[in-house]
Prior knowledge:
By secondary structure, the protein is mainly α. It is built from two helices and no strands.
Amino acid sequence: xxxxxVSDNNPGGYKLEDILGVxxxxxxxxxxxxxxxxxxxxxxxxxNNMRVLNHITDAILLAEDSTRVLDKAFGRSTAFTxxxxxxxxx
Length: 90
């Protein structure tokens, strides 16, 4: 059973790309708050966060691509209304 993502047990869940988008926005907000801090530790954390943002953006693009593939092959998901999964086992 999934806690956050849409599944047969969690029809009210979210698409992966949506969760990642919210997470990316939160990290960007944090980055803005420390962007003027010149201390080495702040610069280090900011640099790490920027790298994390790049990875999250790549993950969003991959998740969106998977959604496009599934939509094209099987039509739009009906999991949010209790429909069967498009791929995999129930």
